[in-house]
């Protein structure tokens, strides 16, 4: 569920995400992630106006750093056709 800062509970949307990963080692993993936004609970958007994207992701995790890099493909007309993501974290 996703709740924007404005609009209150009437703007509550259904935005599920899923991830399936395969650990290549203790340090490396490959994953597929799916992100969607179907619209407000009260009135889901038609399929062509829903956001749908699938990411191919590679993860590197070795203390104190971890890195996640992914490339996505959007599947509807309102989804971004290409997204790159990079998440770098440091454990203290």
Description:
The chain is mainly β and 92 residues long. It has one domain. It has strands spanning 13-14, 17-23, 28-37, 39-40, 43-44, 51-62, 65-74, 82-90. It has a five-stranded antiparallel β-sheet with strand order 2-3-6-7-8, with no helix packed on it. A three-stranded antiparallel β-sheet has the order 1-4-5, with no helix packed on it. A hairpin with a 2-residue loop joins strand 4 and strand 5 (43-44).
Task: Please write out the topology.
Blueprint: E1 13-14, E2 17-23, E3 28-37, E4 39-40, E5 43-44, E6 51-62, E7 65-74, E8 82-90
Antiparallel strand pairs: 1-4, 2-3, 3-6, 4-5, 6-7, 7-8
Major β-sheet strand ordering: 2-3-6-7-8
C-alpha geometry: elongated
Q: Give the helix proportion (percent range).
A: under 10%
- Number of helices, counting only DSSP H or I runs of 4 residues or more: 0
Condensed summary:
By secondary structure, the protein is mainly beta.
Question: What are the defining features of this structure?
Answer:
8 strands, 92 residues, five-stranded antiparallel beta sheet, single chain, three-stranded antiparallel beta sheet, mainly beta
